[in-house]
Amino acid sequence: MEKIWIYGTGGHAAVIADLILSMNYFDIIGFIDDDSNKKDNIFFNHAKVFSPAEFVEENQKLNINNIIFAIGNNQIRKKLAEQFSDLNFPTIIHPTAIIGKFVEIGSGTVVMPYTIIEPEAKVGKHCIINNNAIIGHNSIVGDYCHIGGRVVVSGGVKIGHCCLMGVGTTVTPITSIGNHCLIGAGSVIAKDVPDNSFMFGNPARKVNNYLSNCK
User: Fold this and answer.
1) Taking the chain, what is the end-to-end CA distance rounded to the nearest angstrom?
2) Which residues are CB-contacts of 73 (< 8 A; sequence separation ≥ 6)?
3) Among 3, 14, 121, 205, which is 20 to 30 Å from 26 by CA?
4) 100-140 pLDDT, tens per residue?
5) What is the DSSP annotation of 127-190?
6) Within 10 A of 62 (CB to CB), how many other CB atoms are there?
């Protein structure tokens, strides 16, 4: 089995740890967290929590290249990916996910249980495709996006970088969503959305600008 580090010890990290263990491919060697109160704890009844400094020191001895960032915040995932760019970011896909032909999924992306990614879709790096989400054929999801549970992205949709699609959102076919957008839960996106927009409702309307450091 290959060994892997998980950065994060929140609820999302527990979900990803469970996903990784279900794959029966990686052995989780340890968790990493900035919170000094969590250091040396055993997380998910599985492995020790290291501080970032301890992780760097320990990995110099172990020389484990694989790491996954189990953090829901798009901006923080991007920052960590840049900080640890010398490591390897595996793509993690739950066994129940259905992945169509000629699909491209970027490094560090996590595909959760019972998701569907249809043929010729493209998903960027360090994304989260959450439970029961559907990415339609020929759609494009940019880097560092979080596609919430039960989101339906119809065919031919384009979603920019660093977007958060709230739980249960629906995007109609051949619609474009710009970079750094926040879509509120349960919204229906039926027309193009400009960069830096916070959209909400059915049909979705712009609430205000969404300021993001995920550049």
Assistant:
1) 36
2) none
3) 121
4) 999 999 999 999 999 999 999 999 999 999 999 999 999 99
5) -EE-TT-EE-TT-EE-TT-EE-TT-EE-TT-EE-TT-EE-TT-EE-TT-EE-SS-EE-TT-EE-
6) 12
pLDDT digits (tens, 9 = 90+) for 178-189: 999 999 999 999
β-sheet bridge partners, residue 183: 165, 199
CATH class of the region 92-208: mainly beta
Which sign does the torsion angle of CA 11, 165, 81, 66 carry?
Answer: positive
Q: How big is the chain by its Cα radius of gyration, in Å?
A: 17
Q: Is 161 a catalytic residue?
A: no
CA 86 to each of CA 52, 150, 213: distance values in angstroms, whole numbers, following the listed order: 15, 34, 22
- Indicate where the chain has its CATH 3.40.50.720 domain(s): 2-83
If DSSP states are collapsed to H, E and C, what string results for 48-68? EEECHHHHHHHHHHHCCCEEE
Q: How far apart are CA 143 and CA 130, in angstroms?
A: 15
Q: 126, 137, 146, 180: which one is catalytic?
A: 137
3-state helix, strand, coil in the chain (%, to 5): 15, 35, 50
